[in-house]
Amino acid sequence: MTVLGNKVNPHSPTYLENQQAMLALIEDLESELELSRAGGGEKYVQRHRERGKLLARERIELLLDPDSPFLELCPLAAWGTSFNVGASLIFGLGVVEDTICVISANDPTVKGGASNPYTMKKAHRAADIARENRLPLINLVESGGADLPNQAEIFIPGGRMFRDLTQLSAEGIPTISLVFGNSTAGGAYVPGMSDYIVMVKERAKVFLGGPPLVKMATGEESDDEELGGAEMHARVSGLCDFMAENELDCIGIGRQIVKRLNVTRPGGWRTITDKGARGYGNLAVLGHGSLQRRSFGEPKYSQHELLGIPSSDAKIPYDPRDVLARILDSSDFDEFKPLYGTSLVTGWGSIYGFPIGILANHRGVLFSQEAQKATQFIQLANQSDTPLVFLQNTTGYMVGKDYEQGGIIKDGAKMINAVSNSRVPHLTINIGASYGAGNYGMCGKAFNPRFLFAWPNARSSVMGSAQLAGVLSIVARQAAEAQGREFDEAADQEMRSFVEAQIESESIAKFISGRLYDDGIIDPRDTRTVLGMCLEVVYQNGVAGTRGYGIYRM
Length: 554
Description:
Layout: H1 13-37, H2 42-50, H3 56-63, E1 70-73, E2 89-96, E3 99-106, H4 117-133, E4 137-143, H5 151-170, E5 175-184, H6 189-192, E6 196-200, E7 205-207, H7 211-218, H8 224-228, H9 230-237, E8 242-244, H10 247-259, E9 283-284, H11 320-324, E10 334-336, E11 344-351, E12 354-361, E13 365-366, H12 368-383, E14 388-394, E15 396-397, H13 401-405, H14 408-421, E16 426-435, H15 436-441, E17 451-454, E18 459-461, H16 465-482, H17 489-507, H18 509-514, H19 527-539
Parallel strand pairs: 3-4, 4-5, 5-6, 5-7, 6-8, 12-14, 13-15, 14-16, 16-17, 16-18
Antiparallel strand pairs: 1-2, 1-9, 2-3, 10-11, 11-12
């Protein structure tokens, strides 16, 4: 066993400064998450309750096994846009009848649960996770369909939701719809294309066109129940498989369906300790839940110290081994090539007993040696069928005459080739910065990691704001010289200030998460727990790596 040492002094001025900066970011994050949890606001929540209905999060809590966690994903969807934070849809991973499922619930307190462009993106992400990990998909439906003023951005991409449901079913991945209220227009096909449909009596309404549309289209007079009520679909159309007496009965029938799926796998997160499951970030332990323990070594050092390890100044790198010492089992880490390509840390460890390979940026820049080292390590992980965890904190691949002549492009291409063609599951966490092609080499969103999370201090863009503004300034100056014009220094300074402010605002974690370029922002103290939950998911279907790669440019 190679136990990582402790180099962190929690009483040093630097640590305390870092800790305060991180706590401020976490407090800000929590306030944004409260907006998501608030749904459409107090007025619409109260109206929903007065109708005798449960809120979407209450439905999820009752669906889950008692005292089990719910890992909410993409909770800040639509942040920084004109749409409600959360995008009127809640989804994540939870355990139902000892089976890990993807659970998606419309929030009817937000415009009646109508779908906007970010709702569509969340629904697509939910289906992707169900397919990649072969998890049952449970939709808790109450939606007015498309948000019509935004139909131009919804209609065409929205069709993918129906394709996903039918393909999941064809691949033997169960799809279940529990219908609590309206499911209208295109939204009617969500239950219509599910394997199992439960509808609440006198509440659920599933139809392609409601009474006003039918009246306009055909002149026919009809009511909601005749067109799409639960009893009609149970007795006449046959769309409804089970008619529930009320919402609690609907949820109970849903649990029973999962029980009979014959897909239960031992575990269901019972292998993971309750340490860290405090409900920070998007990790919500509903009710009085906790994660159960198993006998394996906890990290030697406190996970609370992860608050003061990341630098408060994004330009100052920090040693990822200090992070690994607080998330790996027994703080045990077998480092691979520790003396070669030292700005990238690679090696083997485990989390909650699940073996992993780790790639973590150290001093930010990726040179040729780091790229070569990463390429070999990724190949080894695939040979041994070991999932990979990427801890991003990189400014990208090194530039400059000597490095270009030394082959940085072809060496970076090897690393990106290895990441692209790797078949073991990838889990990525941005723990600082993820700039330029370094984002690609360290398995950013475009490279389809199974799960991708960010810490509150994370940033991501094509390059740092000052560098990007400086590049534009140099280009403008050269253009002026080429045209024989006098360069306007005042205008240049104004441009640089404007661009820096824009890039800063577009690179912060909330902006990136709001556009669903990750699965959520997590408190650093929840890193071990969240990774453990995701590893339970990816390991339950087996892990198999690539045995061959494409052509490497030598």
